Amino acid sequence: MRFIKNGYGLSISLIAFAILCLFPVITQAAPFKVLVVMSYDNSFFWNKDIKDGIDSILGDKCELSYVYLDTWRSKDNLEKGHAKAKETYELYQKLQPDGVIASDDNAQSMFVVPYLKDKVKTPIIFCGVNEDIQTYGYPTPNITGVIEVAHFRESIAFVQQLVPSIKTVGFMMLDRSTGQGFLQQFNKEKDSYPAKSAGFRLVQTLKDATAVIDDFKLRCDALLIDNMEGLPDENGNPLKEKDAIKLLTERFGKPTFCSNTKDVEYGVLCSVVKLGKEQGILGAEMLLKAMQGTPVSQIPVTRNKTGKRMLNVTVLKAMGINPKPEMLIHTEIVRTE
Predict the structure, then answer these.
(1) What's this model's pTM, rounded to 2 decimal places?
(2) Which of 98, 85, 247, 59 is nearest to 256 (CA)?
(3) What is the pLDDT of residue 29?
(4) Of the candidates 249, 278, 247, the residue with the CA atom closest to the CA atom of residue 264
(5) What does the pLDDT read at residue 199?
(6) Residues 6+ positions from 322 with CB-CB distance below 8 Å
(7) CA nearest neighbour of 172 among 132, 133, 222, 218
(8) CB 267 within 8 A of CB 319
(9) What pLDDT, on the 0 to 100 scale, is given for residue 70?
(10) Residue 102: which CATH number?
């Protein structure tokens, strides 16, 4: 009887061993390694929003390494960005990531194009790009991504709903890569806007900006003021976005609109804003597809589509504007910070 029991046990063991050989033990795959290169600093609201979007998709699937080129706050930062881009390439070589996300234009011109494009096969996804992507030679067999588009037309229509007498609008941004890219968008679209355009001006200093505002104040009913972080004051010191927006909106003294959430909170009247988180989500979803095996050439370039209506009621009341209640439906209400 002892022999039979042992034989039975031995048979069971052999069967179990055979099954294990036929079906290898399933182990959890190592997470993807992803290098994310941000054009600006880690405190900039746009970068924070894009990071939130990326983290929401890749946070539990990947080892994420973030690098901030910090190229926005001043011209000195912009010049130092090239050195940081070189350091980022050294990090890329060390990490050997499974994928790269490069956010906004400076990350393309300073990092992807000189160090990675046509040199590596790693899937690369861009997002937040304002310039014509052909400027960078995109797309390529391993580079695709998300174009950033401002909702200018929708924002003009919104400010006209609040103030129907608005017939002419102007545009002003800081003379950086973002403003230059939006100028390209403006030139393509301006004839389709619901108000006549008085022009799009890029400014380099606070003195330039005040002169442009004084000119537009005579010729425009409303003005877009946006992307003013780092605008040099009369002493050459870079202004924070909040301070620049406050100075410029007060000097204009008429309705203003923009394209970013924070500028409405800082004192712009209203906007149909674009969302940095959307850029991050779209870019992360595209990279995940590529890392999971979809050829990058089969992942088409896309653009942001979602807009959010925002209204600053502090400014609204100060201007004596009394909108119809139905205009506030699906609108986020904020007060000046």
Answers:
(1) 0.86
(2) 247
(3) 55
(4) 249
(5) 97
(6) none
(7) 222
(8) no
(9) 92
(10) 3.40.50.2300
